[in-house]
Design goal:
GO terms for molecular function: IAA-Ala conjugate hydrolase activity. This protein is mostly helical. The chain contains five helices and two strands. Strands 1-2 form a two-stranded antiparallel sheet.
């Protein structure tokens, strides 16, 4: 009897796992006619952020932030100044949680209701020496701390 229970359990969990995986990868409609976001939810996104996203200066702004981070590297769990820079930029009206895992920042946009989109980025440096010479090369040879 125990063998049949084991066999049933094995096949049951195998099928349940297969169904869960299929549901996780099930395609969702993305056309505007079938959109999962309604205008009310879209209106929850901070207006200031949407206005900024439509300006040509956005590219230069993002590149500037990236270059500042690259020029002033900090190793993992030591990114206090990098985190401070990111929080200063998020203070434009985007709520965030800090600290996350010591120096991490999690920003929040939207209504908080499903569907969700997550974007993840690393902000720590690697302890390497750049061989290329360019304008925005790290200002610190040992990739340790901002001065």
């Amino acid at each position: 009897m125990a063998f049949f229970f084991f066999l049933f359990s094995f096949f049951f969990f195998q099928w349940v796992s297969l169904i869960v995986v299929c549901l996780l990868f099930m395609p969702l409609p993305i056309s505007s006619a079938h959109s999962l976001l309604n205008p009310e939810e879209l209106g929850q996104i901070p207006v200031k952020f949407l206005e900024l996203a439509q300006k040509k200066e956005l590219f230069a702004w993002i590149v500037g932030i990236r270059r500042k981070i690259h020029e002033n590297p900090e190793l993992g769990f030591e990114e206090f100044e990098t985190s401070k820079l990111i929080r200063a930029e998020l203070n434009m009206g985007i709520s965030y949680q800090y600290p996350v895992a010591e120096t991490g920042v999690v920003g929040f946009l939207g209504s908080g209701s499903a569907p969700f989109v997550a974007i993840r980025a690393d902000m720590d440096a690697l302890p390497i020496q750049e061989n290329e010479e360019w304008e925005h090369k790290s200002k610190f040879p040992d990739a340790r701390l901002w001065v």
